[in-house]
Amino acid sequence: MYEPIRSPSVHTPADDADFPHRSREEELDIQLAGHLAALLAVTDELDLGAAGDRIAEQVARLRGAPPARHAGLTDAAPADLHRRAHALAGRALLVAASRADTTAAILAAIRMDAHTAALAGPAPSGQLVGAH
């Protein structure tokens, strides 16, 4: 015969663990603040002051403290910075939509449009961008 198990299994989940757990909403807040902070760094490098201020407001709202503003420059080409900012705004938009944060989602969508327009260059006069 087999002897009964006297100690708890290593596979038993620790329900009363002594470390803090974060909710899904808290995790999404952290992700969104991170994406927006990275977008802020690129926005500051592109010297887009008003846009950077709006992004900084959202980061401060999510983190509860104002973000550190970007101080160093990467000397990347403006087109590369616009592509990077577009990608970061896209990530922020996905997370903002996932957590139903309308304000951050609208801001991210506006920034995506602005960086797309910057990459496309100026539209010929008298024509609408995207008009057929």
Structural class given helices, strands, pairing? mainly alpha
The low-pLDDT segments are none
Outline? elongated
Please write the string of helix (H) and strand (E) elements. HHHH
Strand content: under 5%
How far is the first residue's CA from the last residue's CA? 82 Å
Counting H and I runs of at least 4 residues, what is the number of helices?
Answer: 4
Which percent range fits the helix content? Answer: 55-70%
Number of strands: 0
**Mean pLDDT across all residues, rounded?**
86
Estimated radius of gyration = 22 Å
Q: What can be said about the biggest beta sheet?
A: none
Overview of this protein structure:
The protein has helices spanning 24-45, 49-63, 78-98, 102-120. The chain is elongated. The longest helix is centred in the N-terminal third of the chain and has 22 residues, at 24-45. The mean pLDDT is 86. With 132 residues, the protein is mainly alpha-helical. The termini are far apart. The protein contains four helices and no strands.
